[in-house]
Design a protein that fits this description.
This protein has two domains: about 15-35 and about 295-395, Aspartate Aminotransferase, domain 1; about 50-290, Type I PLP-dependent aspartate aminotransferase-like (Major domain) (Aspartate Aminotransferase, domain 2, 3-Layer(aba) Sandwich), CATH 3.40.640.10. It is globular and about 70 Å long. It has helices spanning about 35-40, 50-60, 70-85, 95-115, 135-140, 165-170, 195-210, 280-290, 295-320, 340-350, 375-395; strands at about 15-20, 25, 30-35, 90-95, 120-125, 155-160, 175-180, 210-215, 240-245, 255-260, 325-330, 330-335, 355, 355-360, 360-365. It is an alpha/beta fold and about 400 residues long. The chain has eleven helices and 15 strands. The longest helix is centred in the C-terminal third of the chain and has 23 residues, at about 375-395. The strands form three sheets. A seven-stranded mixed sheet has the order 4-10-9-8-7-5-6, with helices on both faces. A four-stranded mixed sheet has the order 1-2-3-13.
Length: about 400
């Protein structure tokens, strides 16, 4: 069968026809436990009744008008995020990459408006991933995503992850506009930035007049047990935050949150989006936030996360030669392996468990936030079975 799709993906041959809760079902009717959730997107699982209802009702009324006109659902959702976070201003996008683009533009425009147009540099860290746009790949800390797309754009610098001396030396450069960091890296190996580092980074940015941007595209929307990860850390609020993935529960949507001060350089006409903040996305976004902000919901995420952590740590204890470390936080976790995680991914899919992988030989796990203790224990058992088979193969001389 011919395929006219640009060959930039390497999809599995499995074709899924429907989803329900934390499970997907293929064209043969086989069920799979979904522990990657569309790469941390399906925050409330598949076909959640509240989201289906919100989208269906809105689709029957109005799809699109553009931002030439007021969109009440957009105004409501922006105010709700402002009330629940550090932010005073919200700009809605269609993706995380666009949220990052908006964040960079807001930061640079802030300094321009203050008479410092030379301050354009964005500092980021090795292993980081900030989207596939041209600015995103230049901001990101992985050379492989820039390969073949020309020289690196001016105004971006990558620092070694965890090198505090390098950061202190770089942030005082007169052309620095902002520091961009993922509180928990996704593609870079599901690495959590220590809380003390985030506090120190906040203080350093405040002292130097540099803006602090958090990329919470993957670790936000309740995934680590708070609405946004920064809320775990007193004294580490950002000036700007990029969000997406889980805030739309599967519908394409992103958001850039900013303080009034950080957004002070933005004026009518300097940025925009044709589709961002449209009626369909806002209906779903409000429905997602209804659930994420329910009393007890995030407490439930934290509770099942504890069960998940215990299960993953038990795998590290049982297979110390195969599982080197448990990484991440909440329901964004990784198993750092001594072998290629892609091998294990395939074996787990054969056993009915869908997972992802990330850099530094990490198996990535990001189940829907509605996952239960029983689901977690089932996933851990499946991984245990696969690791046991790998250990036996190695003992017999046939391992990787």
């Amino acid at each position: 069968m011919s395929n006219a799709i640009l060959p930039v993906y390497g999809p599995s041959e499995v074709v899924f026809e429907r989803g329900e809760g934390v499970r997907l079902f293929d064209s043969n009717g086989r069920g799979y436990l979904d522990f990657i959730a569309g790469i941390a997107v399906n925050s409330l699982g598949h076909a959640h009744p509240a989201l289906v209802r919100a989208l269906s009702e809105q689709a029957g009324k109005l799809w699109h008008v553009s931002n030439m006109y007021r969109i009440p659902g957009q105004e409501r959702l922006a105010q709700r995020y402002a009330d629940l976070t550090f932010a005073d201003r919200v700009f809605f996008t269609n993706s995380g990459a666009e949220a990052i683009e908006a964040s960079i533009k807001i930061a640079r425009r802030y300094h321009w408006s203050r008479g410092e147009p030379e301050r354009i540099k964005i500092l980021s860290f090795t292993g980081s991933f900030h989207g596939r746009t041209y600015a995103g790949i230049n901001a990101g800390g992985q050379d492989k995503y820039r390969e073949g797309f020309g020289p690196r754009m001016p105004g971006f610098e990558t620092l070694p992850f965890g090198d505090h001396d390098a950061l202190r030396q770089a942030v005082v450069q007169p052309d620095v506009a902002a520091v961009l960091i993922e509180p928990v890296q996704g593609e870079g190996g599901v690495r959590e930035t220590p809380e003390a580092c985030l506090r120190a980074l906040r203080q350093l940015c405040s002292e130097t007049g540099v803006l602090l941007i958090y990329d919470e595209v993957q670790c936000g929307a309740g995934r680590t047990g708070q609405l946004f990860h920064y809320q775990w850390v007193d004294g580490a609020e950002p000036d700007i935050l990029a969000a997406a993935k889980g805030i739309g529960g599967g519908f394409p949507m992103g958001a850039c949150l900013a303080t009034e001060a950080a957004a002070s350089g933005m004026a009518k006409g300097v940025h925009g989006s044709t589709f961002g903040g449209g009626p369909l996305a806002m209906a779903v976004g409000n429905a997602v936030l209804d659930i994420l902000s329910e009393d007890g919901f995030l407490e439930g995420v934290r509770r099942v996360s504890s069960t998940f952590t215990q299960g993953l740590e038990s795998l590290r204890d049982r297979y110390p030669d195969l599982v080197l470390k448990v990484t991440g936080r909440g329901l964004l976790r990784g198993l750092k392996l001594s072998f290629d995680p892609v091998v294990l991914r395939g074996e787990l899919a054969e056993r009915g468990l869908l997972v992802g992988s990330a850099g530094d030989q990490v198996l990535r796990l990001a189940p829907p936030l509605i996952v239960t203790d029983d689901d977690v224990l089932e996933a851990v058992r499946i991984i245990d079975d696969a690791l046991s088979a790998e250990a036996r193969a190695r003992a017999a001389g046939g391992g990787a």
